[in-house]
Hints:
Helices cover 38% and strands 19% of the residues. It is an alpha+beta fold. It has two domains: 3-38 and 199-415, Creatine Amidinohydrolase (Alpha-Beta Complex), CATH 3.90.230.10; 59-196, Creatine Amidinohydrolase, Chain A, domain 1. Strands 4-3-2-1-5-6 form a six-stranded mixed β-sheet, with helices on both faces. Strands 7, 8, 9 and 10 form a four-stranded antiparallel β-sheet that branches. A three-stranded antiparallel β-sheet has the order 13-16-17. α13 packs antiparallel against α14 (329-342). The longest helix has 23 residues, at 201-223. Residues 1-36 have low confidence and may be disordered.
Amino acid sequence: MCKDxxxxxxxxxxxxxxxxxxxxxxxxxxxxxxxxxxEPPSAIRKLQRMTADVVPITIEERRARIEKARRLMxxxxxxxxxxxxxxxxxYYTGMRWGTSERMFAVVIPARGELAWVCPKFEEERxxxxxxxxxxxxxxxxxxxxxxxxxxxxxxxxxxGRVGMEERVRFxxxxxxxxxxxxxxxxxxxxxxxxxxxFKSPAEIALMQKANDITIAAYRATIESAREGMTQDEFAGNxxxxxxxxxxxxxVFCSFGKYTAxxxxxxxxxxxxxxxxxLMDGGCGVEGYQSDITRTFVFGxxxxxxxxxxxxxxxxxxxxxxxxxxGAPCEAVDAAARKVITDAGFGPGYKVPGxxxxxxxxxxxxxxxxxNFVRGNKTLIQPGMxxxxxxxxxxxxEFGIRLEDCLYITEAGPKFFTPQSPSIEExxx
Length: 428
C-alpha cells in the first residue's frame, strides 16, 4: 500500500471519528487506481506547497505538557497514566508508533522519569525515535509485557490509582490489572483532556495552516467539477489537491438527494446540473487537523435550495455568537438549533431538521473533547477549539451543512476560516 493511500485512509478514519467518511473509504481503492491513470485538472496542477513555514511543536512545549499532566494527576489523586500509541502519546512525547498485538507504551508517573515498554527486537528502532525519557523496559517474545508495566509502577512508587488513556485496548488493560492487582485503575481522561482541550499558540498556528490548506484544496476541487463526474473522481481530485499543497488530506462528497445523509451514502452518484454538492473533510499539519464542510449547487440553485442554505448559514451564525467565554457548551447547540426549529423543522433531533450535535472538539484528532451538544455543561474557555456545523437534513430532497472550526480567545470565538458567503459563491 503506497504511503499516500495510507495517509488518505488514516485521515479519513480520523476525521470521521466514530462515523465513516463514506465514499472516501468505500471508493478509496478505485480512486487511487484512477488517480494513477489520469492527470489532475489544471486548477490542481497550478497549486504549490504551503508548508514551508510550518513550525513543529518544540520539545520544550512537550515537557511543559508533561508537567501539566503531573499537576493534574496530583489534583485528581492519580499516581501515573498509561498510554499506548496514538494522539495522546504524540501529544506528550512526539512519538509516532503503530499499534499491533505487541505492547508498546509509555507510562507518565506523577513523580519521577517517564518510562517506555517496548518489544526487545524493536529496541534499537525505538531508541532512534524516543526523545523524552531514557528508561526503556523491553520484553522478549516469550515474556510478559504486563510484568514490565507492573515493575515500572513499583519502581515509581505507584501504590494507588493508575489512569488508563481512553484508547487503551481492553486486552492490555486486562493484562496490566492482573499483573498489578493491588492498584486501582481509572480513566486518564481528566489528565489527557485537561491538557489537550486547551491549545497553545503553536497548536493554533498549526491548525490555522491546516485550515488554510483545506480552503485552497477545496477551491481547486470545486473548479474541477464537471457534469457526469463520479464521487470518487471528485474526492480523488481533492486528495490530489491536498498532496500538491503539501499536507495529507481527504474529503467525502455527496451529490443531489444524497447530501441529506450527514456522512454520505454508499450509493454511487454522478454529478448533474442542479445538484446540491456537499464536501466534508480536511487535512493534517504536524498531526493537527482541519474539518471543513462546504455545500453549493452545481449550476443555478432553486429558490428552495437557496432558502434552506440561507437558513443553515443563519444557524451557523447563531452558534458562533453563542460560543462566549464562560457559557456552557450546550448553549451553542441550543442557539443553532433554535434557528432551525423556529423555521418549522425538528423539533429536537427529528428530521427534517438537525439530527446531530452542533459541533465537536478538534485538535490532534478530528473529533476530540468536548462537544457542542445538549446536556454538556462544560464551560467554554480560551484555548478550546471546536467545529460549528449545524446541518439541515431533508431526506428525499437534499441536505445543507456549513462547517468551519473556531478557537476561543479571551475576547470570544474566532473562526479559522471565512464563512461561506452564499450558495452561489462558496468562498466569495
